[in-house]
User: Fold these one by one.
Assistant:
Number 1:
Amino acid sequence: DTPYFHGDFFKPLFFGNFIYPSSAIVRRRLFSLAGSFDESFRVAEETEFFHRLAAHADGAFLFSPLIRYEVGGDESLTASKNTVPLVRNALESLERARHLRPDTTAEWDEAYRAGRAMLLYRLAYAQLSNYDIATARKSARTALSERFTSRTAALYLASLLPPGMLRALHAIKRRSSKSAR
């Protein structure tokens, strides 16, 4: 009775990883074909790994909780201080995946571009949140050149604000987030 998906995971992985390694069951033959996790990736290594697996075989996904995990604090891999390296590795993973299948389609290319634009937006947002303004502006400009969205345009405009005004906007955002809870 559990709903599931069976098929090609390659294209959906361009929008981010949705497979937890601790709940994945992988045939040994596929490990031999795809190889193990790339140790040069400290974060986002599972996305790169699952893209390599998906390049070789279809998979199945159960829409049911299989594991429980605790969301970590400041030292976890998903902490905000790790967002920039996580997104950079996800972008590298995306580039590697792009070359795993030579038989591209327009739909596949569109998924790649949309996933890349989403990651570039996340990178610019994280950089701006860390007050790395010049780098955030460059990342937002790259994202806009690849795919225009009003959200990315707003982020680019925010990167043009003086640092004091940007800090004030961050404070307002934090207060409104706390009051919404």
Note: The chain has seven helices and two strands.
Number 2:
Amino acid sequence: MYLVLTALLALNVSVEILNAFLVVNESMETTNRTFSSKITDYYASFEKQYQNEPEKVKPFWDKAQEARKLSDGLKAYLNNVKYEAIAKSERIPIDSAKVKPLYLMGTKDKYDETTVYFIGSSSDGSKGKAGEMKKTIAKYKEDLLNLIEPGERSIIKVGLDLQGPFYDADHKEQNWEMHNFYHTILAADVTILNKLVAEVQNAELDVVAHLRSKISCS
């Protein structure tokens, strides 16, 4: 659904497409809240195992805590980018952006302010917030995978694809920055950023679950 909407977005922002983004975003936010609760429960179960067998579990628990720290940091960063984009588009304080529902935003179908924010003065988006995000996500992926033994990294589904290939509506190849944030309306930007948070949560749980699975092998 998300991919279809993104493709259609490049052609025309109709009322139907805009409303579809609102529905997808609402679903994404609900999913993120649910998944966040699931991760919290998983850590609680992991911690209980650590308390019962501290010597055996500690090396894996310590790495799980590092995964949590890395993931919490990236999720907070992505959410802050989302609120900054809303604040710039709506021209409101960032505190107001944090509580304003997407469906009430007057600029949800506009892309002027957000394109300046994400792409900046560069022709490829590398000097805007999108370029900064790409570097931040790449560093996260590297640090997260460093918690896993080199020979086992291929089985971890980190996601957060930054390389593509990505294509525009005319099937011309684009980089990650331009594909996701060039002339992308605010409703789509918010949805994309919430999707990235979901991918971080998936990566976090995959890594932590793998670390926990190693306990019985130690």
Note: Residues 75 and 200 are 7 Å apart (CA to CA).
